Amino acid sequence: METGHASQVASVQDDDVFVRPGMTAREIVQAVRNLKGVCLTSVSMRDAGQSDFKNRHRIYDLKTLAPLYNRMGLFSAECHGGARWHVGIMNRRESPFEEIQILRRLMPNVLLQTLVRETNLWGYRPYPRNVIEYAVAQVDIDVWRCFSFLNDVRNMRAVAEVVMKRGRLFEPAISFTVADWATDAYYLGVVREIVALAGGVDEIILCIKDMAGVGNPARISQLVTTIKEHYPDLLIHYHRHITDGLAIPALFAAAQSGAKIVDVQEDALVRFYGHPPILGVQAYFEEGGIHVHLNRMAAEQTNQQVREWIGHYEWAESPFKGYDHGVTKHRMPGGAFPSSFEQAEKGGFLHLMPAILRVMALYNQIVRYFDVTPGSQITWVTCSGIVNRYAKEQGESGVRRLIALLSKFVEEKGQDIEAMSEEEREELLQLFRNASGDFKNLLVGGYGRLPVGWPADWVYQSAFGDEWQAKIQGRTDRSPLDTLKDDDLDRLRQTLSEAIGRAPTEEEFILYLMHPKDALSFIEFRERYGMAPLVLPTDVWRNGLRRSGDKVDFELDGKPYCIELVSVGAEHEGVIHVVLKVNNVTRVYPVATPRARKAEIRMAKGPNEIGAPINGNVWRIGNPQRGPIHVGDVVHKGEEVANLEAMKMEHAILAPFSGRIAEVCIKLNDVVKEGQLLFVLEKNA
Known about the structure:
- By secondary structure, the chain is α/β, with parallel strands linked by helices.
- β11 (575-582) and β12 (585-592) form a beta hairpin.
């Protein structure tokens, strides 16, 4: 005990930073190999906020940690990528490129790390090779953690090639879960493909990505030991969420078996779905005889710094509290948990979450892949949609009936559909009738090959109806890198230029390539409000100035500013006039309330009127093959005429019959309601 305590208080000195930006991948790998004990990656700036706070942590607050990170002796700081990129432009109104610039300035000693979803990069759908190569070449990141929710290593090729050619560190990740098919032999096969892709083990670090936190200590120890036996020089980095309550002993087991890097976050950030606490991990490891390379004093100061601002984000925490060992069954990953609860709350079906999680546990035995984005979104949208449909059509008894049906099929009958009654078979064949385009794209190989084979034929019959046999015949196990045609980048750049009325910057163009609708909204917001997201304190950013005399002081471009609320007028015809003093100059701003006069929403009623099947955002009118669709255009039955985005998934709107577009009733980026009129279609004479 005394030895462990002495090790705890030992600190890494400022000059003991062992890896820095500018080092080659080979130099970084060798530095980690030579390091005594283990080192740490802090995920506080990215995954911690995604997993427990819906990606709402602002760079205004996170940047206060950077000077301390600069002398903590970290391996890296994951500060970029995943859904933080998307929520940044959509909600926080921050550019991921701005964040990199800020952190480079404040912590020049720290390797910056991103998380990319192979062909999906920072989005939710596969992008063609030229988009991947263009985007990856433009982003200034040192460590590129790359995973596939299918463990389809072929999908990583484009990212790996560009990253390694640039001399940056490629960190391929194997997606981990616990299932009867997820054996050591299976994972060794994935590692073998990764090593072949990278040309050896001297310029990469392998990540085991346990995104749901389902690996118990014995299972993780066994897997790390097995990999090290076959690849003794391969560096292993273990990433693991805490949901099942076993995170710290699982990290320790990984380190005992040979892992050199583990992921942690500030103790003050730890809630229920994120990552293990840095101070607790360091203390536990040291007491167990494993040295941790860490400036303990700087880590304690960083933890205290978090406590000064974390209270601003209590509203963003999940309404479901506490660890959940049931995650080993439903496997909802930490990154998807709070955002799914938020969507359920907004959609008015939060009370159905236990049922949805139960259905997910059964679904992921029918369609087998790894529940990490975009797979987790496909699972969530599919299962929540099924449960909601039963709830709307049959009430609570219908939801219970659904669970009883799936439990019998999966757990009692071993998924033998012929063992079910005729009535039960018919009901199963209706299960995926309203499935999203992304789910259908998964079934035909649009994301790559599934890890252990395609689902049973009845799943296709349920999803595609009369076309199910043709869909099976047309499915492919090729990588999207080999099937998707290159995008016309010049045309897309021109489209963006026309939308914003000027030539876009390189950063704006990349944002647009990833998330077209939200990038346009972000650019519009920033042109109107400037640098406000970067300079306003979080309490003011979220709540504004509430009472007369409230004020906020900040600096912008080295100049001091003061905004003071003078008065808020009475509402008149849905408009309120707000009086502010900006550096003692009085200004009046009209603000529209929810009661402001709005345009009437037209609903689809007739057989020739195409309505929205769900609530969503219009992010494309037309389709990639023919481009935008206009009045007068002739479309064919089954052709995509628009695409809605809801809960990060795409929903294609198809023409119900061949005809001429008589009216386009929507505009790009419109928010539409279920049943709202989208198009009027006239049948061909």
